[in-house]
């Protein structure tokens, strides 16, 4: 009798073992050969694009001095963590998908689960800390201090310590890293219903997924509210466009966070607390791929939608060696002259005075509008 490849893949891919035995992987059902092929294509694209985008970000930081501001250092931390996922995590799952099963045993599974959890949580915590930093800047109604790197480094170190705090326990007995039901990725052992494992899963979900999301929603929601209140005093097309652009970026940030990480969190909870077998291997691999796709999406939203990074990126593509002009264009002192009223003052003083005389709004509001423009340009 001939046994098809699909039947072999649907059978248990690893030796039978009890989950109480920490020395071996838990046997799991595999994916069909066609599903393995599709997963390998998706992971291959994520690997190439994620490595390319995040490497470009680091190259821009190396090449252009003006981009190395405290707020951008936090963006760099996100790119570093995403690039480390592409280096230490995605290649292993890609190889497993190509070969049809996990290749490097128990220790390799623990390494993969720890690295992906560590770097993923660093990225999530950094996103929430970035939103908090912007919120504090808006709350103080002050311009971001481009010379103070202490706060940025404090946030970066906090993100790594916080992530280590939640990813090291499975290596020391509080839950453990094990093979997921797809057979090509490793993560926390979601399928165990022991009190030890359930307590860790609940804490991980609340403090590493829900809490960063709530911080982002609160901070960015407050930022949009403050900017809208300030812009309502001004009847300027430029201000309205920038307000819409800010709102669009906030919506993209929160939406992509939800799309990339919430399915993984919800499926993991269902696997942990639902009936055994309710989540099939094919269904379980989709949230895992979405979570890994954040390594591609994060640079696009947080980096290439940023005007500073975009200008440097264009200069990098044009192989421009003279970065002096770019540094001047991106300097904070230069950005203060972007307001239409200020340009009118320097180019045509007579028309500026006539416009001010016909304007019924008090001069205080004009000054406030300039302040808002400067903040948005430099901090958002």
Short description:
The protein has 380 residues and is mostly helical. The chain is built from 16 helices and 2 strands.
Describe it.
The protein has a single domain, classed as Up-down Bundle (Rhopdopsin 7-helix transmembrane proteins). It contains 16 helices and 2 strands. It has helices at about 5-10, 35-65, 70-90, 90-100, 105-140, 150-165, 195-230, 235-275, 280-290, 295-305, 305-315, 325-330, 330-335, 340-345, 350-360, 365-380; strands at about 175-180, 185-190. The chain has a two-stranded antiparallel sheet with strand order 1-2. Strand 1 (about 175-180) and strand 2 form a beta hairpin. Helix 2 (about 35-65) runs parallel beside helix 10 (about 295-305), helix 3 runs antiparallel to helix 10 and helix 14 crosses helix 15. The longest helix is centred in the middle third of the chain and has 37 residues, at about 195-230. About 40% of the residues are buried.
- CATH names the topology as Rhopdopsin 7-helix transmembrane proteins
Q: Helical element count? A: 16
- Rg for CA atoms: 25 Å
CATH superfamily: Rhodopsin 7-helix transmembrane proteins
